[in-house]
Amino acid sequence: MAFLREPTVWIVILIVILLFGAKRLPDVARGLGRSARILKAETEGLRTDDIPSTGPLPTQAVAAPPAAPAVQAEPQAAPRYLVDPVTGEQILAQPVTPPADGAPRA
Description:
By secondary structure, the chain is mainly alpha-helical. It has a domain at 2-47. It is built from two helices and two strands, in the order ααββ. It has helices at 7-20, 25-47; strands at residues 80-83, 90-93. It has a two-stranded antiparallel sheet with strand order 1-2.
């Protein structure tokens, strides 16, 4: 405890006692201890992350995506069947597609 021989340490201790008072010093020390424990727990959580912290991160060469074909064919959907509620027979459901030119249907 060689640091207690320094006069500046005693001056700082005296100022702390004058500022907070002798009755509040245990509360201040308790709060500092809690803060130190929380800080230590949070920094430990950062150290034990799933990402390795030693060495550079692995890099992968990213190739350019292949050029898209000029015209892409639409994927063929499986035919859907509906059940007629009156007769109970299966009816092929026809998808409704809008006209290619954007004009409204007649």
